[in-house]
Every structure is written in structure tokens, then in C-alpha cells.
Recover the amino acids of this structure.
């Protein structure tokens, strides 16, 4: 038997989708595995408020007891932000959580799948997963990259997390035919830092231009996703030369403790939070808000182009 899955939405999201108004998808792994309570809840609610202030509708995505939710209300976000034993869902196990009645937070890959199923074409996050440092031995390459290749959703991020091998991540995206567009600068940002030291493959300077590019991609057919790399605001950044030593220390302790698989990214983010005395978290929240704002503007530009 085949069929389509049931999607639980909030009234706000259902109304916006039905009317063709702009909607921005949001992931939930950043809430459950990316930041500690209660800052994670505050971040999630603030991101939603930012999107509404731009005239778009936020849709935070998660699987709750086997039910796919596209749009969570404040109580559901608060519950998820404190929940224990939440799965971290990617493409491989998204349907497993649905079938087994489990609760799972969606990574970039699973959020893209859900957004596409719901008919949402713009998604805001912090940073995507990518090629990990030492991937030539560990083979640790995030499923986010293959998802960007196959699923037609625009992902607004602050680039790839700087704990990754950014040059290899860019190579992998290019091989997969994923456009990587830096917003408003020539350089590729590096999550907590505005400049990774690498040129971005493409650059655009406003949301309308991003919408035009997306419409041209659709006209060419068979397109997958695209990555918008939006630099963190200057007042919130931690420059790359300051982050470098913390990242190296965090990578060393991951190695020493034999951290592997799905634990790698949450472990490194947690270590860096401690090493920076909480500064990395403030920057992480600032960049997510900044991405939410841009995503709302892109969704708005796309919605008005469709009218
Ligand atoms: N960005 C953040 N914090 C996070 C993540 C991204 O600011 O926690 C999550 C995203 O859900 C991303 C995931 O998809 O980390 C990547 O995990 P992995 O490297 O295991 O594929
Ligand atoms: Mn991995």
C-alpha cells in the first residue's frame, strides 16, 4: 500500500498555505540537540516572532509521538525544548519515527523533506551539516548535503558550521549541483564568523534577486535545493581566528572520547559553548534570527512573484 502521510498543521500555517501567503519552515534539532534549556525555547519562540514581524508565517517542524507536525504552538515548542530522549531525525530515520510512534526532532535533511511534503519552499536554520574534518577516515558526511541535492527547498543558513571542513563541504555541494549563494558579500561565512577565508561560489544582494534565481531554477526543471549563506551580523560575530582554537580543542576532546555518528555535532556545539563561556550560544541565536528575517523576505518575494 502506498499513500501520503497525514500532516498536522496549526491553523495559522494551514491558512497561510491555502492562501499562498509566505511560510518559513524551521527545524527542531537545533532546539533539542543544538542548545541548552531554556535558551533553546526562547530562541525558538523569538525566531517565530521574527518571521511574523516580517509578515510571514513560521512553521516549526517535528515528529511528536509518530505524528508529523508542520507548525507547533508555544506549548508544543516548550514541551519539545525540555523533552528527553528525543530522536535526531535525518532522511534515514524520519519515516521510522512516524511508523514507531516516536518523538523526533528534524535535522536540516528531515526538515527539508517535511517542508517539501507540506508545500513550503523556504527554510531557515543556523548552519547545515556537511563534511566533517577527518571525513577521509570517518566517512562522516551529513545527509544534509544529499538532501540539498534532491529536495527543492531554499535553505537559509549562516553557512556550514565552522566545526566542519568547509572547503570539502563546498566541493561536495558543487559536485551535487547545489547552488551556494552568499548574501551581500563575496566571502563564504563560517557560522559564528562572517568570513571563512573562502570565496563563495555565488553572491546575491537582496531577497528579490534570490527569488528571481529560484524562479529561473524552477524553469530549468529537475532542480534540488539551494543554500543561502547569510553572514552573522558584525556586532554578534566571533571572528574566525578566535574560534579556531576552540574548534581545535573541541575536536580533540571528541576524538579522545570516541564520539561518533549523530553525537558528533551536538557534542562539538556543547564543548564550544563551554569553551567560549556561552558566547557561542549568543552568536548562534543572533545568526538564526538573522536567517529567519532573510528567509521571511525570500518567502515573501516568492509569494508575490507567484501572484
Ligand atoms: N545548526 C545549528 N545547530 C544545530 C544544527 C544546525 O545551529 O544543532 C543541526 C541541524 O539540524 C543539522 C544537524 O542538520 O545539526 C547536522 O547534524 P549531522 O552533522 O549529524 O548531520
Ligand atoms: Mn554525521
Amino acid at each position: 500500500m502506498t499513500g501520503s502521510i497525514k500532516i498536522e498543521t496549526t491553523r495559522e500555517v494551514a491558512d497561510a498555505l491555502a492562501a499562498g501567503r509566505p511560510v518559513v519552515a524551521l527545524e527542531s534539532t537545533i532546539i533539542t540537540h543544538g542548545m541548552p534549556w531554556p535558551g533553546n525555547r526562547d530562541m525558538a519562540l523569538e525566531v517565530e516572532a521574527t518571521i511574523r514581524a516580517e509578515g510571514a508565517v513560521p512553521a516549526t517542524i517535528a515528529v511528536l509521538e509518530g505524528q508529523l507536525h508542520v507548525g507547533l504552538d508555544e506549548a508544543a515548542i516548550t514541551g519539545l525544548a525540555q523533552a528527553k530522549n528525543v530522536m535526531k531525525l535525518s532522511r534515514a530515520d524520519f519515516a521510522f519515527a512516524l511508523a514507531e510512534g516516536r518523538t523526533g526532532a528534524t535535522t536540516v535533511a528531515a526538515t527539508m523533506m517535511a517542508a517539501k511534503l507540506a508545500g513550503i519552499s523556504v527554510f531557515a536554520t543556523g548552519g547545515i551539516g556537511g563534511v566533517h574534518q577527518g571525513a577521509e577516515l570517518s566517512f562522516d558526511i551529513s545527509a544534509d548535503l544529499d538532501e540539498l541535492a534532491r529536495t527543492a527547498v531554499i535553505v537559509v543558513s549562516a553557512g556550514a558550521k565552522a566545526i566542519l571542513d568547509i572547503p570539502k563541504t563546498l566541493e561536495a555541494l558543487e559536485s551535487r549541483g547545489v547552488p551556494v549563494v552568499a548574501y551581500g558579500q563575496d566571502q563564504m561565512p563560517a557560522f559564528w564568523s562572517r568570513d571563512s577565508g573562502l570565496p563563495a561560489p555565488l553572491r546575491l544582494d537582496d531577497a528579490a534577486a534570490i527569488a528571481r534565481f529560484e524562479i529561473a531554477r524552477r524553469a530549468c526543471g529537475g532542480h534540488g535545493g539551494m543554500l543561502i549563506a547569510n553572514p552573522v551580523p558584525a556586532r554578534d560575530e566571533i571572528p574566525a581566528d578566535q574560534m579556531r582554537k576552540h574548534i581545535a580543542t573541541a575536536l580533540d576532546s571528541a576524538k579522545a572520547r570516541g564520539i561518533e555518528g549523530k553525537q558528533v555535532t551536538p557534542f562539538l556545539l556543547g564543548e564550544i559553548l563551554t569553551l567560549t563561556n556561552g558566547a557561542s550560544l549568543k552568536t548562534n541565536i543572533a545568526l538564526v534570527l538573522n536567517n529567519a528575517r532573510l528567509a521571511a523576505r525570500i518567502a515573501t518575494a516568492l509569494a508575490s512573484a507567484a501572484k
